[in-house]
Structure to design on (224 residues):
């Protein structure tokens, strides 16, 4: 532009107004978004006390991005500060749904271990027992999670369809959340339990192999 416009001596062209605001906001978001994801992961780690469960829960965030990105594209919204704010809010809700699913699966697995102990059957859970526990834990959360997602979507739809003052900004915040709530609810009920079931199987195999090695060492020490 400076090459096409003749500027009198002593004058200069600088970007200002809405463009300057967007540039500053994008610079802040480059810090806020990674910091938000890191904070969510740390809170999950402190809650579960291990690395595998938080990593599985973090998968719920991409599940939400699928529906959120699709609805933003369908409405023709460009990536803006409002859209990013909607995705940040969606990340928190998606992580909460993932926590609910994994928590009740862990409770079902603990109950399966307790029942196995009562029967006097020592050792690790079988693959079938783990899958039954995963299904039971997931089934207990289907209705509450569906009700939560329905309530959130019902509250956001009037904002998404609103036409009043400031609706342009509010629509861009609501769109990622509405689309993301649909996809994260479905995928957290179908895909997340399967992934966590595979993680639990790996843990059981590792625990079983460690138990066998420990038993062999005890046997050698007793023979010596």
């Amino acid at each position: 532009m400076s090459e096409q416009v003749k500027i009198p001596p002593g004058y200069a062209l600088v970007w200002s107004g809405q463009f300057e605001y967007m540039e500053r906001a994008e610079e802040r978001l480059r810090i806020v978004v990674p910091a938000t994801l890191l904070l969510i992961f740390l809170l999950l780690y402190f809650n579960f006390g291990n690395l595998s469960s938080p990593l599985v829960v973090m998968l719920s965030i991409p599940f939400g991005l699928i529906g959120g990105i699709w609805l933003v594209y369908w409405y023709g919204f460009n990536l803006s500060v409002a859209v990013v704010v909607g995705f940040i809010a969606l990340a928190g809700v998606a992580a909460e749904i993932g926590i609910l699913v994994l928590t009740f699966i862990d409770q079902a697995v603990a109950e399966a271990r307790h029942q196995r102990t009562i029967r006097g059957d020592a050792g690790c859970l079988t693959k079938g027992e783990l899958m039954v526990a995963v299904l039971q834990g997931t089934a207990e959360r289907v209705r509450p999670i569906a009700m939560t997602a329905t309530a959130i979507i019902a509250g956001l739809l009037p904002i998404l369809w609103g036409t009043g003052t400031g609706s342009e900004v509010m629509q861009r915040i609501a769109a990622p959340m509405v689309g993301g709530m649909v996809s994260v609810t479905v995928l957290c009920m179908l895909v997340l339990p399967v992934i966590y079931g595979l993680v639990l199987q790996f843990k059981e195999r590792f625990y079983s192999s460690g138990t066998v090695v420990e038993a062999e060492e005890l046997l050698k020490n007793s023979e010596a």
Notes: The CA atoms of residues 108 and 132 lie 9 Å apart. DSSP finds seven helices and no strands in the chain. Helices lie at 18-48, 52-58, 60-75, 81-118, 127-160, 167-190, 192-223. The longest helix spans residues 81-118.
